[in-house]
Specification:
The protein is an alpha+beta fold and about 80 residues long. The protein has one domain (about 10-75). It has two helices and four strands, in the order H-E-E-E-E-H. It has a four-stranded antiparallel sheet with strand order 1-2-3-4, with helices on one face. The N and C termini lie far apart (about 30 Å).
Amino acid sequence: MPVYEGTYQVYTEALGVLFPVDSMDSCEEMMIQDWPGALYKKDDTAFLCWTYSPEVTYVLEYTPSKIDDSEIIKMAESAEPVK
C-alpha cells in the first residue's frame, strides 16, 4: 500500500525488505524536494524514505537521539539523483 498518493509513491511492500513497516511507532508523510517521502520511527531508530522514480527509492537509517530529524531531512533535501 503506498504511503503518498503522488506521481510516484513510497511503496511500503518494498521497504518491508529493509525494516518492519507495519511495526513502526509512527509514520510522517512529507515531500523531499519534489519527491514523496515518509519518516518512520520505532524506539530510537528512524528511517527517512523517499521515492525518486518507480524504480528508485532512497532510505536513510539513523538514530534520532544522536542526530535531529531536521538535520537528516536537510541532508535528504540536498541529495541529487544519480544519472
